[in-house]
Amino acid sequence: MTAVTTARLPLFPLNTVLFPGLVLPLNVFEERYRAMMRELLKTDESEPRRFAVVAIRDGREVAPTAPGMPDQTSRPEKGPAAGFGPDPIQAFHHVGCIADAATIRERADGSFEVLATGTTRVALRSVDAGGPFLTAEVEEIPEEPGEGAGTLAEGVLRAFRNYQKRLAGARERSLSTASELPDEPSVVSYLVAAAAVLDTPSKQRLLQAPDTATRLREELKLLRSETAVIRHLPSLPATDLTRSPMSPN
Hints:
The chain crosses the membrane at residues 12-29. By secondary structure, the chain is of the alpha+beta class. It has helices at residues 31-40, 149-167, 185-195, 200-207, 212-230, and strands at 6-14, 23-28, 50-55, 95-106, 112-128, 135-140, 247-248.
């Protein structure tokens, strides 16, 4: 039997899906997340500074009256669960990703610039709002290859290059070359999931796929569908394959 690995980690809910291997830049200015970063900085630099990232299903990434986003008509919403309702776990998707903060820089105003990388998928088991920031008990989800993952990855890469070409208006110089794209099936599956222009529910379904092959099959369908749609649209923004957009908290 495989041992189940669980951990209690700081929890950072976002309006985006983080995938293993992808970079996540964060602009941290709310007090609850500043407190989280100050706590992570207590961890020795030789150890990983880990926190869990989950996509928000129902709630606000930034509390309505947070600094920089004032709401003069309502009373300030405070506390680690602000914006997520009385039972925070219900506001989040239940599969997320552990992030390892390689860089945590405090600015003069007390906010933080953070650069983290997704590492391992996790299932959200419980959420605790009793401290200065949310914490969660999470269980690691192993990545199973599934049947035919290698062949599927080749097909997804071909479909992805065609999709890129459509996004870039067929300007070959703007496309990644074959040498820049990976060939390991799970890496392909996560890279394509992060890079494709998809809504959060679609990306979440890809994150929580039971194995790599299932994720690749779904991506093949999505890429073919999206490429067909793009043919009839004047333009779409190209995406960055190695970084996620800067996320406010």
